[in-house]
From TrEMBL:
Higher taxonomy: Bacteria, Bacillati, Actinomycetota, Actinomycetes, Micrococcales
Gene Ontology MF term list: metal ion binding; prenyltransferase activity
Official protein name in the record: Geranylgeranyl diphosphate synthase type I
Protein family (similarity comment): Belongs to the FPP/GGPP synthase family.
CDD domains: Trans_IPPS_HT
Keyword Iron listed: no
Length: 365
């Protein structure tokens, strides 16, 4: 049985080997296609690998005991790696949608392609080329995530487990795509909704855009690959969903208050993008109408300067919305941990999942 601390390394090795196999398919297209594929390697390196870790421990917890079968280990590592490729694809597309210039402290994919266009003195619009190229890169990564998952599931002798895992992945993929749409919809449609409707929409985005694919589905995918019964899958889901909500609420806080040197994105980026999060909905609900109008005028301004960001941060903090969200993070985490204590799993798996729960909810990036 491998140590889970080695999982990020094993996932990276599996991703590298998979990209090598797909690069050979692109070789006949020439050096330009190979250069395009090479960009994918950079976006598949690093990161916290939370999704892979939750997939691993979902499998390990429901396997009943450490599994030393090399084929079983290879299958779960491949499945965990497919989630990381899916995540990379989502980030590439997300940065285009949000007009984010950076990712993990480096240029976002569309910015990198635009820079290549400019430095090469090509004809046409460099920014349009960058966006189009990044959309295609994200599409390529989405396809690759599916192919690698198929390789993992094809290796499973338990075909019922493979089908259950595939259905979970399919559900996750549909939900996160529709959830992303709900997110951008709310940035445009919020003014036509009541305060209660805005808050409800913000919670819906958390549930379907992030909470599911960040934690719930990776856990359930791993448990399904382990051959878990439906009632056990439901129990794992009951742990993963509130923890996923807490994870996204923390992400929303970092999107407003995060340290750029740690998050790799400019401080207050969510404010410039006009994200209509639970944090913002609670802020608007706590303010008098005159102050709400000021918040609405500043929120979503792509040219918002540091003084404007600081002003909004102070408003969010002083009205009590930040404290409310911190309370929500604690309550959802507590709900998840209570379920974890009730799961019929061994002590090592419980300890590891408890440690992961802390890592995703108490973090700076």
């Amino acid at each position: 049985m491998i140590e889970s601390g080695r999982l990020p390394e094993l996932v990276q090795d599996r991703i590298d080997a998979f990209v090598d196999s797909r690069t050979s398919i692109l070789a006949p297209l020439g050096s330009d296609a190979l250069d395009f594929a090479a960009v994918s390697r950079e976006f598949l390196r690093g990161g916290k690998r939370f999704r892979a870790l939750f997939c691993w421990w979902g499998w390990r917890a429901l396997s009943g005991s450490p599994n030393t079968d090399p084929d079983a280990v290879a299958a779960i590592v491949a499945a965990a790696s497919s989630l990381e490729i899916f995540h990379a694809a989502a980030l590439v597309h997300d940065d285009i949608i949000d007009n984010s210039d950076t990712r993990r402290g480096a240029p976002a994919a569309h910015v990198r392609f635009s820079s290549t266009h400019r430095s090469s003195s090509w004809r046409g619009d460099a920014d349009a080329f960058g966006r189009s190229s990044a959309i295609l890169l994200g599409d390529l990564l989405l396809g690759w995530s599916d192919e690698l998952l198929d390789e993992a599931l094809d290796a499973l002798p338990d075909r019922a487990a493979a089908r259950t895992a595939r259905l979970e992945f399919n559900r996750m993929r549909s939900e996160v795509t529709a959830g992303q749409y709900l997110d951008i919809l709310e940035e445009q449609a919020w003014a036509s909704r009541s305060e209660a409707e805005q808050l409800e929409a913000a919670w819906r985005v958390i549930r379907f855009k992030s909470a599911g694919y960040s934690i719930e589905s990776p856990l359930v995918l791993g448990a399904a690959i382990a051959g878990a019964a439906p009632r056990d899958l439901d129990a794992v889901r009951a742990f993963g969903l509130p923890l996923g909500v807490a994870f996204q609420l923390r992400d929303d806080v970092l999107g407003v208050f995060g340290d750029a040197s740690v998050t790799g994105k400019p401080s207050g980026d969510d404010l410039r993008e006009g994200k209509r999060t639970v944090l913002i909905s609670l802020t608007r609900a706590a303010l008098p109408s005159a102050h709400v109008r000021i918040v609405d005028e500043l929120l979503g301004d792509p040219d918002l300067d540091e003084a404007g960001v600081a002003s909004l941060q102070a408003t969010i903090r002083d009205c009590g919305a930040l404290d409310q969200v911190e309370d929500l993070i604690r309550s959802h985490t507590a709900e998840a941990l209570a379920v974890l204590e009730s799961l019929d799993i061994d002590d090592e798996a419980r300890r590891s999942l408890r440690t992961l729960a802390t890592a995703v909810t108490v973090r700076q990036a």
